[in-house]
Recover the amino acids of this structure.
DNA sequence: CGGTCACTTGATCGTCTTCAATACCAGTGG
DNA sequence: CCACTGGTATTGAAGACGATCAAGTGACCG
């Protein structure tokens, strides 16, 4: 979390969008160079420190945002301290769609961030001239929707072990070509955030990690490093086929194995 | 549930989209009359009986759909019988966005339905000629996203009482102008579907209904009729301020407000 | 009527939460 | 070098909420 963002070079300042590292990742990639030049004129770049929020749930939704660097957590809160993280937003992510007149969630930096801000009105005008951008936005929203539905299944129907397995698999596929995954992970968020994302408490997260390690499905390093040891078994878990689950064993036949 | 759909008149058959009852509700309303005429040429109207599904999770996503009449439940399933309903789709609802190459959910009729089906390719071509339709689609997706995030908070962090209160309030605002709500409801779905939507079991749904009635917050009629008696208290509940919750009151600190 | 189906109610059990103590780790200053 | 500190993670014991299993009720319909 002490990692610093690269400082913009003078050239970056002169052509802020053309040289943006996140350009290829997000909706901005839909714009031609002249489009980007115009985009640069209507945007404001803001630096956000750890723990600081740049979108507040309930505030009038006047702006759109694009993450240029760093990661944010997006969450909703109840009147007491209960909180549900609905997702994490990394470089290229477009934010502000999920808003009627007011923002539906809060966005807070979990590491140092650079974020581009646009007035909604100005961006809408830009979209009229560059319909490809609107198409990209629709694709982005659809993908968010697919992810949200998967998360609903997780929150509504999965056990703690299944939730964590599912989450780890998702992380291991982050930014990988379809069908591939990496084994070594460095989770960017704390146990607390993980709990708020998976609908569990810190303690349950911790216990479940420990148990998965004891079962040799994963290995745990320092600084939130995780190594996936048994991908197959983890995938079984995430799909709801839990061998040691002791969930509705509608047998009475053999194989009533305790954990 | 024995209610029948109105049979299309000869005039309806000749001008299927122009006379559609759902036209004003959904994305089709974005089209001018000539646009609708063209829409009519690329669509197929299908009748769906109760319990029948017209979108299957995992199937290749070749079509878009618009609900013309009736209601569908949209859900995802785990390998055992666990199931999470991600939403209900009524007249005017556009379906098929939440799909990459394959559909992300199953859609099944909870009452007799009439559904319009479009080849994705044909509809995309239509959207290029009528950009307003694409804008509507983006709005629809954004609204779905807001709803999905609210549901995540519900599934991840709310108690059974809070979930049901929140759901009833949502129903009471269905199709009402902003800020208003109705007191008399007729729920279109069974207890089982309600459980699968709220991440609870049938029994818990039933018990929670009974308890809310005992507390004079609602009244229950036959045929899934519900009357809201104490709107204020129900709203308190849905926002997480539960008087009889006996949940951890971290008081002894006077107003330690964060953010 | 007997049948089915959806819902309700009751008793018991398990998973996750809550509360609490301890371990760990990096940074600071004696 | 080591105690002190604050934050984060782990572990333990007890409790609660909702799930599970099981029985009972009521409506609808042949």
């Amino acid at each position: 979390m002490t990692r610093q963002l690269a400082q913009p070079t003078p050239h970056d300042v002169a052509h802020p969008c053309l040289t943006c590292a996140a350009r290829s990742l997000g909706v901005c990639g839909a714009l031609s160079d002249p489009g980007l030049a115009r985009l640069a004129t209507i945007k404001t770049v803001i630096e956000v420190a750890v723990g600081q929020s740049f979108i507040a749930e309930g505030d009038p939704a006047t702006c759109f945002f694009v993450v240029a660097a760093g990661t944010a957590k997006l969450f909703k809160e109840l009147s007491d301290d209960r909180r549900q993280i609905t997702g994490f937003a990394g470089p290229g992510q477009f934010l502000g769609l999920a808003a009627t007149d007011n923002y539906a969630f809060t966005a807070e930096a979990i590491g140092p961030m650079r974020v581009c801000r646009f007035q909604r009105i100005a961006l809408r005008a830009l979209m009229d001239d560059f319909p490809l951008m609107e198409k990209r936005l629709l694709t982005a929203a659809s993908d968010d929707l697919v992810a949200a539905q998967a998360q609903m299944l997780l929150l509504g129907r999965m056990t703690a072990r299944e939730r964590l397995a599912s989450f780890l698999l998702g992380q291991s596929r982050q930014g990988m070509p379809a069908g591939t995954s990496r084994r070594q992970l460095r989770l960017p968020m704390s146990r607390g955030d993980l709990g708020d994302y998976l609908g569990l408490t810190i303690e349950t997260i911790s216990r479940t990690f420990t148990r998965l390690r004891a079962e040799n499905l994963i290995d745990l390093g320092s600084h939130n490093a995780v190594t996936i040891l048994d991908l197959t078994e983890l995938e079984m878990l995430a799909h709801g086929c839990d061998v040691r689950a002791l969930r509705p064993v509608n047998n009475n036949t053999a194989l009533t194995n305790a954990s």
In short: Residues 190-192, 202-203, 205-207, 209-210, 248 of chain B lie near DNA strand C (CB under 10 Å from a C1').
